[in-house]
Request: fold
Amino acid sequence: MSRRSGILEFAVLGLLRESPMHGYELRKRLNTSLGVFRAFSYGTLYPCLKTLVANGWLIEEPGSTHEDAVPLAGRRAKIVYRLTAEGKEHFEQLLSQTGPDAYEDEHFAARFAFFGQTSRDVRMRVLEGRRSRLEERLEKMRASLARTRERLDDYTLELQRHGMESVEREVRWLNELIESERAGRDLRGSASGESAQDTTTGSTGGLPRTGGTSGTDTPDDTAT
Reply:
């Protein structure tokens, strides 16, 4: 399994833990909630869903017709995907992992999106791993800039500085998150006794709130 397909499977299982969905709903949630998935298509999602079904982590069910949907002759009804007990157990195992894949660039965004469903000790290990990785990257960037500064033109130098500033901002952000976790607060400063899922994600079911959803995206596959 490639790293990218593993991230997609993780995100799909996490969304379906919230509620059953058909393929178009899943694609929309992935596109609007996780930037890493904004460029993927049904051609990527459909094989992923089939794999999860084959593994016994999802089941396919016939979907109900929405009142505002216009049925097309010869088109199949949408298939709804539901998480099985085995799928839920598998997702919880994935949530508990804190190795390098949990805090590398692409996978970290997906893991962070489901922090509302993750235990505090696991969140801490993932955040600290991410911070350590970025601090190593920042040190290398600074060393490289020091060696090559005299040979770079102004625009290349500015690009290097921009990259360093981006990493520095994320390290500061991670420091704030880690401090909050250690103090027993969630992102809204609530006491540790409150549910992190309730206070950090609201109705989004484990995904960060976004500024809105795309109103122009239309389904192109009624089979999923």
Remarks:
- Residues 66-74, 189-224 have pLDDT under 50 and may be disordered.
- The beta strands are 21-22, 58-62, 79-83.
